[in-house]
Amino acid sequence: MWKKLYSSFQKFPAQQKVAELLLTYGLRVEGNAVFCGKIELSHSKIARAVGVDRRAVVSTVETIRKNKDLRKIFMMLQPTCHLKEVAPQMNWGVVEIIPTDASMPGILASVSSIIAKAKISIRQAIVDDYRLSREPRLFIITEKPLPGNMLSRIRTGRGVKGVVSY
After folding, report:
1. Same structural domain for residues 64 and 98?
2. Where in the sequence is the domain holding 100, given as residue range(s)?
């Protein structure tokens, strides 16, 4: 999918930036419009967020509309609520995993297994896509803050370079 995506926008760096933003936030293209869930977003505000001219957003949407494969992808995107910022107010725990290699399989499985063995429920796990993020991370929101001794166990998990707890 990434090869198809990048090849479609490789000659148009501004459009590539817009397409990456759409993917990062799960913004859906429908017709000539861009939506966050059911909310239509203005092309001008998207352009400001990316740092491009509004016409680049219009062109990106047009490129997506004209390409069947891109259309299939961008018509199905959905935004996701990321709970990491509100977790402390809810008395939940947040663990941020810094991977040694984000493309390595098993990082989430390893860390979630350690947490499950402690009989702590995971409310949410969000993994940054290593092709979209310069410094991808794994964020795990738990039903309660993790005890300090668990962090040292998590540090020994497969593919874990570092751990930050909030």
Report:
1. no
2. 87-165
